């Protein structure tokens, strides 16, 4: 394998500590994989006697590899497995003949050991440690781990209990003078979670958060800060003082003061500052700019900022300090009660949350016998994404002290501060490794992902935004930029591929309904511009996407829109829908706010309270019924005073009322039927089945099918049903309460791991969710949005523990604005937190820009908010004018019509005020229809089971070797085994994994030999040199001639840029030639789907009848007339289905 010099240095280093700064797209996953394999290879060389005992060599069991998500851990394990298998199969190329068998066995042992290897997350590693040493750790041998949502739901119940308790209310009443319940809940959650991410163990919260200690620490901190700012002031001021003219009276006084200042002067900062105030003039004289520039600069640029800082370092009065202590004591009591109740709730469940796992693992690792045991077992520890670690996680490494540590991260990509990540830890490691003789620091700076022109833009911009020069005064959380180099530096890659679209700010309000002024919607305008720009790129058809060393035109799946937060998602979705742009949203962004979710919950809320007017009206107003305000007024006029709305509908009193129109009567009749079908809520089957039935039979699913982007909407409701099914409660009221809590939590939840959806759709996700992903074309909207800072009135800080602010009304002056009060360090911590948020925002901007492979589009309303990405970009362009040459700037994007797929010859008729639902057909349905319309009618329209159908087709009968082996089940198992083979599994592993699909163990013997025979014959395809594997089991949903076609292609190979589709058949037949004729249309359907979704051309189609071996491999000549015939068939089927055609229509066709 080819590696650059930086990568080689990382892979082959034998230093005990290796710290790697892995820039975006620098191939760190390849390096981690190869490092792992290299360590094993060194162990093999030692066993072969090729070298003395290798200091670095180790087996799989002796290596721990930690990453930050389960998905990343799985991918790393799969890559290592693939690499080991590659070496195992090619031992003849790497070792002497006498070593082949030994080497092959060694690598097989390592591969087998991977199943139990510690390639995992920090939390899973902690879980394993606690499980192994349960007695020493004092934990139950079998405990459950609460995920974030489960933990938060328990916490919500505890808060409700605490704040509803009369006893606690009386005790904490003074605290309510300063904070609301909501503020206290948020503060408790924030302080508690941050404390547990940093501190190993707190025996007593009240003693740890002792108010006397806290105030003392903070007053000492103020004194230390005063010393620090004064020291820096005098250091920076001395050069100016040396230039002052002593003949000037003011200058002479300053010079004398500076001459009297010694190191001892800084021991009493307050006295020194008073002396400084006495020495400097009270105010600046603008004439000094001409007459005395050093004095003007000293006063304006150094002394004035010092005065502002000094104000913030003024401590509270003794009266305020007493009150602050009382508030801290009360708050800590609340925190203590919460801690005790939360711990009790977890003990009752024999459960731990993620913080408990870390804390208890660290406590366990403090024991010398555990440290020694771990150090003996784990010679190597490899940490990925080290910039996202917290203090407890780093402590694990310190306690274990493995012989070799391999740390990979990139401070520039640290964006998870809200989860407790501390980028300063990575900074400290980098600094240490640069100085330590037993360590290697390696900067992997070659980017293999992104075009050179985008990298040039990123380098110039972020050198200015982050700063390249490091200062001794910089805090550890500040990351300085280091350049990355692009490997993709061809002629096309050097063309400008960065756009900045600025949308002029709408200053004037616009007229709204009934002459009322509306505020201009700049954001909606920006998203409309984005939609038009995407359409422009698609319509122009420029080759701006790189695909295997060739440039092609883009498809929708090449686009990604990365958003900073979810707050404006609905506006973005609206703009895309209006233009007919297909999209998919990831990561639970705004999940509970989506219309289809609200509609389902409206239905469930009515079902829970079917007799309450509020829920009846909500249901009638929903899209499921669509009752207008005028209809509501009609109902209200008809209601008699003593008749409830529910009775009016349930008893059908509306039926004979002449004041209610026929359309409204029909709607109310539908709701009356709902009462008869669904009330009361009494599921006879599982909760999941009941809700799935409700979704279907209520008509909500059918209604969603009428919408654009309908498959995504249906999947969203199905996901909601999955969530509902997880709750172990028979009470619908309790279930809906739990869902409401989840909806409230969704704003604060972190991003889920992202698995990119298949299909031709634009990808929408937050920048956080996009970490580790890449896209050909990236849009970054809303650059003018400012960074989100912390706004808590009570905050945790690891150095001074708790800081707080509050408002206090003036005595005898209640109408005047209250005084703001602060604990001694609050202002400093607030400033520090704000600065940390700005620094992280810079890193988030960097992560966002480096997701783009081929094209980057930035957009913003032309109103830069302070510290927004747009503000940063404008300042960078001012500081380095060459940046403008790397950006195509525009404010004009043409308006485009709604997107229509090209090449559609058939346009279905439009129905006024109705959305047309697209009929859907599986490939099997189309095949059945083409060969026997009557059988299709019985099977797919009437829904008669296969065993009741009379076989009418002339298709040659399949032959089974054993009547108790299901052909369908055998096919499923064989297809799975073939897929695994193509993904690097050995023959034995693939068969074993595939046979695991069998539900009954006694079936294994029936299928094992048949699977083995077929999979062995599948391997023979390698002899045909068909090309490299492109995809297996490639599922698709594609629109063809106004219908949705659903299917799955067994195997796709690619050779010299040409694509070959192969369908695998596992049954034995007595007439292969006739089968080829029968299945040809199926392959043409696959070809049409693949070409439409990927915009790639298919050059070959083949069937492989596996029972026949290579003799059963049959290629099909491509005939354009067949595609035309299939299109006509689909139109015909659509017409029959949409017109609800009877059996005689199918008979006439047959």
UniProtKB/TrEMBL annotation:
Keyword terms: ATP-binding, DNA damage, DNA repair, DNA-binding, Exonuclease, Helicase, Hydrolase, Isomerase, Nuclease, Nucleotide-binding
PROSITE patterns named in the record: UVRD_HELICASE_ATP_BIND, UVRD_HELICASE_CTER
One matching Pfam family: PDDEXK_1
Leader sequence segment: none
GO terms for biological process, alphabetical: recombinational repair
Binding-site list for ATP: 22-29
One GO CC term on file: DNA helicase complex
Name this protein carries in UniProt: DNA 3'-5' helicase
